[in-house]
Amino acid sequence: MDFIVKRNKLTKNNSYAILFFTLLVIAFPDTLGDSNAIFSTFFLLLAIRRILSIKSLKNIRLKIFDASLWILVGSLFYDWAIIYMVLVLSAIYIYEPKNIRNWFIILSATVCFVLILIGFLSIFDRIDWLLEHYRFNLDLKNLFVFDMVSNVKIGVYFLINVILIIWAFLKLGKGGVGRIIMIRLVVLSFALGMLMNILVLSSESHALIITFFPSVILMTNYIQSIKREKFREILLMVSILIPVSIFLGRLLVS
Fold it and tell me: Do 3 and 10 contact (CB within 8 A), yes or no?
C-alpha cells in the first residue's frame, strides 16, 4: 500500500498512510478474521495500482488488461469484487475514451481469465465450482441484523469519510485537473468498497478492509494539510487513542 501511495504521489512523503491503515485495522479487528476479504483486497489493490498509473498515458492497454485481470482474480474470493470493473471503465472514460480498443481490453482479459480458470478446474474435475461461486447472491435479511457496536463504528467511519470526501473536492481540487481526477478515482474506489461490503454482508464476512486504502488516502491528505502543528499533533493523538481504546474495551468486555 505504501508503494502505491508514494508511486502515484497520492500523499506527501510521510508515514501517515501506514499509521492510519494500522489504526483502522485496530478499530475493526474482525476484518483480519476474514481471509477472503484479505486476499480479495490484496488483488484489488494491485488492480487499483495499475488503474492509477494510467495517468502517465503510457502502456494504457497493458495497464487496463492487468487491472481487469487482478479484479477478476480478486473475484475468486468474493464474487461481488467484480463490480470494481466500474473503476476500470471510469479510468478509460477519463483518460482515453475515444480509442475503441481500450474498451475491448476488458473483454479480452475476461476471456483469458475464464479460459485459464476452466483449464485449472478441469484438472480437478471441478468445472461446477464456477456456477457455485459466481452466484451474486444478495441476502437482504443481513441488512436488518442490528449489532449496535458494529453498526455505530461503521456509521461513524462512513460519516468521517463522507466529510473527508467533501473536503477533498473543495480543497484538493485546486491542485489541478490531474489531482482532482486521482481524487475522483480514490473516492469511487471507496464507494465501490462500501457497496461491496453491503453486497457480501453476512455473519462470516468482514469486507470493510477493502475500503481502508481510499479512506487512508483521504485521512492522510487532510492531516498533512493542517498547518497548525499543535492542532495536527492533538488530532493525531486522538486518532490513535480512539481506536486503541475501542480495541482494549472490546478485549475487556470479551
Answer: no
Q: What is the pLDDT of residue 65?
A: 97
Q: Quick one: what percent of the chain has pLDDT higher than 70?
A: 93
The Cα–Cα gap between 129 and 167 comes to 45
- In whole angstroms, give the CA distance from residue 68 to residue 57: 17
Measured over all CA atoms, what is the biggest interatomic distance in the chain, rounded to whole angstroms?
63
Q: Of 181, 148, 170, 168, whose CA–CA distance to 223 is shortest?
A: 168
Q: What is the pLDDT of residues 98-146, one digit of tens each?
A: 999 999 999 999 999 999 999 999 998 888 898 888 888 877 666 656 5
Query: Is the Cβ–Cβ distance between 28 and 153 less than 8 Å?
Result: yes
Q: In 3D, which of 73, 8, 11 has the Cα closest to residue 41?
A: 73
In the chain, the amino acid numbered 157 is Y
Compute CA distances 241 → 26, 32, 126, 162, 248, whole Å: 11, 20, 49, 22, 10
Alpha carbon of 191 to those of 8, 99, 184, 234, 238: distances in Å? 20, 27, 10, 29, 26
- Amino acid identity of residue 23, one-letter, is L
- Record the pTM: 0.91
Neighbouring residues of 111: CB distance < 8 A, sequence distance ≥ 6: none
